[in-house]
Amino acid sequence: MSGLNINAITKKFGNFAAVDNVQLNVPHGTFVCLLGPSGCGKTTLLRMIAGLEEPSSGAIVLDGEDITPLPTHKRNLGMVFQSLALFPHLSVGDNISYALRIRGASREEQKKRVDELLTLIHLAGFADRPVAKLSGGQRQRVAIARALALSPKLFLLDEPLSALDAKLREAMQVELRQLQQRLGITTIVVTHDQREAMTMADLVVVMGHGKILQAAPPIEIYRKPADAFVADFIGITNLLPAEVDSAGRTTILGTAI
Ligand SMILES: Nc1ncnc2c1ncn2[C@@H]1O[C@H](COP(=O)(O)OP(=O)(O)O)[C@@H](O)[C@H]1O
Ligand SMILES: [Mg+2]
User: Fold this and answer.
1) pLDDT per residue over 97-139, tens digit each?
2) For residue range 57-94, what is the model confidence (pLDDT) as tens digits?
3) Mean per-residue pLDDT for 30-40?
4) Which region among 2-16, 75-89, 240-254 has the lowest average model confidence (pLDDT)?
């Protein structure tokens, strides 16, 4: 199958299951948001997909290949984390071309790829700028470009926008979504912000206590939350039909809609 298949993955720390028998199929090109409260296992699941954490049991299959035994650098993925570390002493261009450089790409190849990626993130002409001179949003875009330099099969982001202020975060949500659609790359973003998940994702995966509670498109999560935890977490309140008479008295007419 093309895409990512997470097959009965469990991660135990001692007796505690941080990720508990998670099963998920992500078709190629899907934008997934892993959504849930702090401590529910989102980062642990993402780290297992990335090969930074070894599962206690289960398998991760990418485009039909079992990648569970592979080290991170052989998994063909790009990663962006909340506390991203751009190399502060390098220029924007040198940050982006870093992975190409250590793989021995020629100067022309590096420059071509850097220019392509800078155009993609709306920072054309910024190659020689020191990263220290960038704004927070610009730095995050450079981190995204750097992660995409080797055209990975899978793009993994852990709370990538949470350090940005609200207005910039909303703009970046739209940008990230557009970028993902242009590239058609299978993308998994961890977030604890339900609005962010609903804005960006094709598939919202709501987690609680190490388990997947619901995996569905945003509209379906809204219309048919799987249980009270999901409904509560995404902020759905019950709506009841009612009638107000001329004296201002309210009568509830029926069951929840
Ligand atoms: N290396 C570790 N050792 C022990 N417990 C851990 C470790 N990493 C994470 N945990 C625990 O696993 C649970 C899930 O953590 P995490 O995946 O970071 O959650 P989230 O990203 O959803 O906030 C938490 O209870 C956390 O304390
Ligand atoms: Mg986390």
Assistant:
1) 999 999 999 999 999 999 999 998 889 999 999 999 998 889 9
2) 999 999 999 999 999 999 999 999 876 678 989 999 99
3) 97
4) 240-254
DSSP codes joined into one string, 79-138: EEETT----TTSBHHHHHTHHHHHTT--HHHHHHHHHHHHHHTT-TT-TTSBGGGS-HHH
**Alpha carbon of 171 to those of 42, 141, 182, 196: distances in Å?**
24, 12, 17, 11
Query: Using the 8-state DSSP alphabet, how is residue 199 labeled?
Result: H
Specify the pairing of strand 211-216 against strand 242-244. unpaired
Q: How confident is the model at residue 255 (pLDDT cuts 50, 70, 90)?
A: low
87 Cβ inside 6 Å of ligand 1? no
Report whether residue 130 contacts ligand 1, using a CB cutoff of 6 Å.
no
Q: Which domains does the chain have, with CATH numbers?
A: 1-75+193-257 (3.40.50.300)
Assign residue 25 a region (left: φ > 0; alpha: ψ between -120 and 50; beta: otherwise).
beta
Evaluate whether 231 touches 225 at the Cβ level (below 8 Å).
Answer: yes
Atom of ligand 1 nearest to the CA of 36: 22
- Nearest atom (ligand 1) to Cα of 40: 22
The closest residue, in CA terms, to atom 18 on ligand 1 is: 43
Ligand sitting nearest the alpha carbon of 37: 1
Counting every residue written for the chain, the total comes to: 257
Mean pLDDT of the chain: 91
d(CA 226, CA 222) in angstroms, rounded, equals 10
Report the atom number in ligand 1 closest to the C-alpha of 37: 22
Ligand 1 atom 14: residue of nearest CA: 41
Per-residue tokens: 72: 């991170």
